[in-house]
Write a structure and sequence with these properties.
Elements lengths: L8 H5 E6 L10 E6 L4 E5 L12 E5 L1 E3 L2 E2 L15 E2 L4 E7 L4 E5 L4 E6 L2 H4 L2 H5 L8 E4 L15 H15 L3
Antiparallel strand pairs: 1-2, 2-3, 3-11, 4-8, 5-6, 7-10, 8-9, 10-11
Length: about 170
């Protein structure tokens, strides 16, 4: 029986969008939580390998290259000037698990980087325990004129569940 309690803050104010198999990497699914004010929160989808099989996180690195650290992102003012502009495949961070598997987390949408979640640097377990709340990766503000079109190419919750269902069915022996 389904739990019919009050919807969470996430479910009440955000629309969940998904990008699956990011950059051709099977199962590396991301979730984009789009607020009614157009701000988007980038998180791991529950099917992402980092959240599977009791994995532990060894390291989270927002240093994308020698010249680019997402931690150095600074925004100011009402219009959030100064934030790094991201394309939809811009890397946000790299996460290394204790089994030495490394995963790159991408922005998934075009927009201005408002903030990265520095709390997960000190407490990486937040990413595992609360991926869509305190364990989020980053917050991105799409351009106003693109705020409707950014979800093109993303999957709805229902479409994402269909992908998961097909994956499960394909894994079953015939």
């Amino acid at each position: 029986m389904e739990d019919r309690t009050t919807p969470s803050v996430i479910d009440r104010y955000f629309t969940r969008w998904y990008r699956t198999d990011l950059k051709g990497k099977t199962l590396e699914d991301h979730c984009i939580l789009q607020h009614s004010n157009r701000i988007c929160v980038i998180t791991l989808a529950e099917s992402h390998p980092i959240l599977q099989n009791g994995r532990k996180i060894k390291n989270i690195n927002y240093q994308i290259s020698d010249g680019c650290s997402r931690l150095k992102n600074k925004v100011s003012g009402k219009s959030k000037r100064g934030g790094q502009f991201l394309t939809d495949f811009a890397p946000l961070c790299r996460i290394t698990c204790t089994d030495e598997e490394e995963y790159t987390i991408y922005s998934c949408i075009r927009g201005r980087l408002l903030e990265v979640n520095e709390a997960i640097l000190n407490r990486p377990d937040l990413l595992l325990e609360k991926p869509s709340t305190e364990g989020y990766i980053a917050v991105i503000l799409p351009k106003f004129e693109e705020s409707k079109s950014i979800t093109e190419g993303l999957l709805t919750r229902e479409q994402y569940e269909e992908v998961l269902s097909k994956r499960t069915n394909n894994q079953e022996p015939s």
